[in-house]
UniProtKB/TrEMBL annotation:
Pfam families: Amphi-Trp. InterPro entries: Amphi-Trp_dom. This is Amphi-Trp domain-containing protein. Residues 4-90 form the Amphi-Trp domain. It comes from the Archaea.
Length: 92
């Protein structure tokens, strides 16, 4: 098991560019490479892929702003007889 995550502020155009790049990689037959804050993670998605899309708004009494978010998650299963076979392919 493993999890890597990065968070940074970008412009809407930069986010759109990143999503287009991800979409192009998913559309091909090869792997998907993500750059997570200087660490590269490579995936080999298999069909089918479960696609979860969520919209959320959070506001509390007294707040002057509401936090809104869009979250997306892609999930697929791959054969693995050990934790090592199921581990992420991470490169620094």
């Amino acid at each position: 098991m493993g999890e890597l995550e990065t968070e940074e502020q970008k412009t809407r155009a930069e986010v759109a560019s990143s999503l287009r790049d991800l979409a192009e990689q998913l559309d091909g037959d090869g792997g998907v490479t993500l750059d997570l804050g200087g660490t590269t993670v490579q995936f080999r998605p298999t069909d089918p892929v479960t696609f979860k899309l969520e919209g959320e708004s959070d506001w509390s009494q007294g707040d002057t702003e509401a936090k809104q978010s869009i979250e997306l998650e892609l999930v697929w299963w791959r054969a693995a007889a050990s934790a090592e076979e199921g581990a992420l392919d991470v490169r620094e």
